[in-house]
Specification:
binds 1,3-dihydroxyacetonephosphate; 304 residues; 4-stranded parallel beta sheet; binds iron/sulfur cluster; 15 helices; alpha/beta
């Protein structure tokens, strides 16, 4: 087995030769985060993908993220090192479902979570991420919103923007949605005087108990800035490990050991090397879909 340091060095050399940039989501395994040029949440990564002058983007994340990078930077080669890394929530809604909702509610605007396919984005009016969803919905002119696919994020937005009417799709993130209130109560019994930071993909009953609700990167910032000494994290385990490493003076607890996204853990260092070496797996989005999906993404930047 190749030594991790040697493999990282080879990846760095190959990356320079191919004029590539490596982007990694905060849920990726530590070695992959360490070899990346930039690590962030969905919004930060899409901004980087749109702004980079590299010729090749190696996206260490899941398929919808690499697709979003391709939509934003169509002239670049976008590589997804683990081709089977998908997002089950993104797969819970299809283009035909959105078209049917639109036909039933013609006056409503469609807002899709970035965790969706390019085809779904193409039939949506606006896209959003967990860090800008509330602001976007507040700022857009429409009063009626079809929100797909995450029912939990949708419910969180609707509580923050009660003056608007919402039609939800019943999608969910299997990793965040499986956490129950009894798990939160059990951990709170053990650790008193804690601040609870949660991702809006968790169930409403969990989110309602939180001291802070935010995206992955927002949770990391909040945990660092908070004066609280004891912090419970209600999002994927990758965030917990990073916080523990970066805040040795604080007690950081993960709400549940079940908070692992198997798809985000599929990318290994060896896959990143093979991606650059063999220029695989190239992500393509059909021109017509790409151009329509781009409008929803551009409106996201415009309204948030
Ligand atoms: P953020 O990166 O926006 O926090 O989203 C988390 C997530 O589940 C990505 O799939
Ligand atoms: Fe999808 Fe949830 Fe995994 Fe994010 S954490 S990629 S939403 S399954």
């Amino acid at each position: 087995m190749e030594n991790v340091k040697d493999l990282m060095q080879k990846i760095k050399e190959l990356k320079e030769k191919k004029r590539a940039v490596i982007l990694a989501h905060l849920y990726q395994i530590e070695d992959v985060q360490d070899v990346a040029d930039f690590v962030g949440d969905s919004l930060e990564l899409s901004r980087k993908a749109a702004a980079t002058d590299a010729e090749v983007i190696v996206f260490c994340g899941v398929k919808f993220m690499a697709e979003t990078a391709k939509i934003l930077s169509p002239d670049k080669t976008v590589l997804l090192p683990a081709i089977d890394a998908g997002c089950p929530m993104a797969d819970m809604v299809e283009e035909k479902d959105v078209l049917q909702l639109k036909a039933e509610h013609p006056q409503a605007a469609v807002v899709c979570y970035v965790n969706s396919s390019a085809e779904v984005k193409a039939v949506s009016d606006y896209c959003c991420t967990s860090s800008n969803a509330v602001k976007l919905v507040q700022n857009i002119p429409e009063d009626e919103i079809i929100f797909v696919p995450d029912q939990n994020l949708g419910c969180f937005i609707s509580q923050k923007v009660p003056e608007k009417k919402f039609i939800f799709w019943k999608g969910y993130c299997p990793t965040h949605h499986r956490i129950n209130l009894d798990e939160l109560e059990a951990i709170k019994k053990i650790h008193a005087d804690v601040e609870f930071l949660v991702h809006p993909e968790c169930k409403t009953e969990i989110v309602e108990q939180a001291d802070f609700v935010g995206s992955t990167a927002q949770i990391i910032r909040r945990a660092k800035e908070s004066t609280a000494h004891n912090v419970i994290i209600g999002t994927e385990q990758g965030v917990y490990h990073r916080l523990k490493r970066e805040n040795p003076d604080k007690n950081i607890y993960l709400l549940s050991p079940k908070l692992i996204c198997p798809n985000m853990k599929k990318t290994r260092l060896q896959d990143v090397f093979a991606a650059l070496d063999e220029m695989k797996y190239q992500i393509e989005v059909e021109k017509e879909i790409r151009e329509k999906a781009l409008l929803a993404l551009e409106r996201m930047f415009q309204y948030s």
